[in-house]
Amino acid sequence: MPGPPVRCGPMNDKETKIALVTGAGSGIGRAVTVELLRTGWSVALAGRRAQTLEETAALADARAAKGASLCVRADVSRPDDVAGLFTAVRERFGRLDLLFNNAGTFGPGGVPFEELPYDAWRHVVGTNLDGAFLCAQAAYRQMKEQDPQGGRIINNGSISAHTPRPHSAAYTATKHALTGLTKSLSLDGRPYRIACGQIDIGNAATDMTERMQTGALQANGEVVPEPVMDVADVARTVRHMAELPLEANVQFATVLATTMPFIGRG
């Protein structure tokens, strides 16, 4: 079950847009949360560790956050946790304008496909795909029922939604599936002013990609350092997508380190 909500910042006014960011305790989720709070959004932060969520909220405050924050410990792969998370958001803020479906895991690195344990496969699928489904479904219901009706869902894809890395079957499969979920939500949400887009991110400088700067396995078997980009550039891209009117939508966006191996990968 989700932990008790922690009120991390001041209450919001009725004109403030409300966002929910999953995986907000680190990496891209942290950067997006800070960017949204800094620019006046109120944000519910969701993640498995309460301490890192509170650290994210404190970092936003240190950068002169203008929005209110709410920290909720939740595992997005668990239906009861997701239900509790959205109840906490509704009770605190009353509505939801944006879900950034960001929580994800790569799984065990360097494991050949034929040696990938089923438990590891299920963990990646549970977090990356089941979690995205559960949160999107809860957001969809909220956005459909609220007044004014509508909102936006942004799914965090990956360039692995287009092109895999070696030994990444579970991660790549979930990211390809996420693209299908994005398309279906875009279609099904039209009657209710629910817009859905996907941001595919490559080599943002986070803890998850730190190893790439020292050497990442390439398709030809070589281990080569890869360039990274500032995660703040990703955060600004998400905010641009989020702040469009609901009559406009960035369906798919790819933001990546310019010279990383993607075009021509393999």
From TrEMBL:
Asked if the keyword rRNA-binding belongs to this entry, the reply reads no
Q: Where does the record place the Ketoreductase domain?
A: 17-202
UniProt entry tagged with the keyword Transferase: no
- The transmembrane residues are none
Q: Sorted alphabetically, which keywords does the UniProt record give? A: Oxidoreductase
Q: Which GO terms describe its molecular function?
A: oxidoreductase activity
Q: Which SUPFAM superfamilies match?
A: NAD(P)-binding Rossmann-fold domains
The family classification in the record reads: Belongs to the short-chain dehydrogenases/reductases (SDR) family.
Protein name per the record: Oxidoreductase
